[in-house]
Amino acid sequence: xxxxxxxxxxxxxxxxxxxxxxxxxxxxxxxxxxxxxxxxxxxxxxxxxxxxxxxxxxxxxxxxxxxxxxxxxxxxxxxxxxxxxxxxxxxxxxxxxxxxxxxxxxxxxxxxxxxxxxxxxxxxxxxxxxxxxxxxxxxxxxxxxxxxxxxxxxxxxxxxxxxxxxxxxxxxxxxxxxxxxxxxxxxxxxxxxxxxxxxxxxxxxxxxxxxxxxxxxxxxxxxxxxxxxxxxxxxxxxxxxxxxxxxxxxxxxxxxxxxxxxxxxxxxxxxxxxxxxxxxxxxxxxxxxxxxxxxxxxxxxxxxxxxxxxxxxxxxxxxxxxxxxxxxxxxxxxxxxxxxxxxxxxxxxxxxxxxxxxxxxxxxxxxxxxxxxxxxxxxxxxxxxxxxxxxxxxxxxxxxxxxxxxxxxxxxxxxxxxxxxxxxxxxxxxxxxxxxxxxxxxxxxxxxxxxxxxxxxxxxxxxxxxxxxxxxxxxxxxxxxxxxxxxxxxxxxxxxxxxxxxxxxxxxxxxxxxxxxxxxxxxxxxxxxxxxxxxxxxxxxxxxxxxxxxxxxxxxxxxxxxxxxxxxxxxxxxxxxxxxxxxxxxxxxxxxxxxxxxxxxxxxxxxxxxxxxxxxxxxxxxxxxxxxxxxxxxxxxxxxxxxxxxxxxxxxxxxxxxxxxxxxxxxxxxxxxxxxxxxxxxxxxxxxxxxxxxxxxxxxxxxxxxxxxxxxxxxx
Length: 716
Fold this sequence. Notes:
By secondary structure, this protein is mostly beta strands. Helices cover about 15% and strands about 35% of the residues.
């Protein structure tokens, strides 16, 4: 059952209200007195995921009310909403809950469905009971039935909203749309279908109206790929036991109700709701926008625009010439370097600060935190950072500890959430417990995150970053760095390096994500189900224990799956892929690659190029792909699979007397069956059998006699 654009619009309206109840009341035009009487929650509730069974029950009830001229929660046969939801196939389990709203808009003339949708939403929000259902944070799922028809002789749009939760399941959900009217919100006609949101092997694709929902019960930072319609993006989103709303807007912006880190293919990031979330850019020019909570926003490299919006935000531009706008609240900008080296120029809306060879422009920022002191806007305009009078504003938050000199220092955090900036020396930083932000800045630094979910940025120099306990995010940034994730699920980025130097990334315990980025990299996932991405140039990837995913990227890479059932893709370049132990899937992709399955029942796909495949021990499936390939099955019975255009391939060890070893010709259109094969395509050439697969392609079975072949040797 497809969802209509008006139904998708109402889901977006409901979720906007849940993420920011006060803001929604103001948008809907309620007076301050009316809002005060509503008793709205001060925080956000998680966005709701659209579920087909709930939608089916809702649409059926709306249709029944129109057909019977009835407006009631009691439906056909005296049914309640919970009965109708269950009858539609929704399974209630564990700590389940359900609720229902109904409403209608009627006219003696024609009625516009879109206008009716907005009016119905306002009316339901204005009603205490309906609003309580809409904002109830016990609900995680929604289904809408918007039906147009005749009700009591009037043209009517009837709505049923079904809410539910079951078995504590959670979702990644949202919408993809092209904001043609530039109102920063979904409108009818703007939805984009066919966009795929994926976490590992799980994915959901947007419907024609733009919406999607995918059950996902994982925790911590997760890689989310967004592909389709010319888009290829990768972001990281933090899950914390509730639904996360992740939207794609205008094919270049990602909006999230969870903490968000941009990785590749995406320029802009926006935080939704009122929660205190984190937002990190990438190494391109980003526009990063906070929400109504206290956010920490990092620009990293590039000439970025950081917008705090409401809340007391911490804004860190990073490398590049950045524009920083604080918005409402008491905001702090963090700058790398000593205040005495800063050149401050007042502008029409704020100040420009030149420091360390880059110029940042600030507006609406109350506190400026340098490596030696914190100054207010007035301090800097009056030159207090230069004349020795010192700051007159309130000191920096006690959770911020900084290096004030160019010397080599040891800095220690406390039990809270610390912000520690190393300064210009060779620094050693120990963060302690808490969710900390650690910046090494210049030269070779050593950073220890300690307990808690930390963010560490190495900066310039050959740095060593240790995540320790907690779900950490480590950025080596420039030069050859060493990153150690420690316990729990960590995300590690190597950054860039120079010459023949390389970054070393060790995920250690937990389900980690390692990204080599630019330069030569060494990635070791360690224990857990890890994701390793080499990035550009020649990299070495070791999955370690667990079921790992390895991506070589550009360059001549070597990938070792280790123990577990691993998935490895070589990418561009001449790569070597080793499955090692476990039932692995190896794909060479572009270039002349070498694939070794190792021990286990493996799938090897050379893809493009002149590849060499060796299945090793186990019952393997070997696919040469395009190009002239050399294929060896190894020990046990294997399957050699071919498709049209596979090239001139050689199987070096086909065991024709092993009834379980086969050549799969089901993908070869020129050969239809065994009779056709033996009479039209099979020949003995010296000591080998040659199979003509058409269009100039062939398969050579080395050291095999035609007389030893029979029907057990082939699949069609």
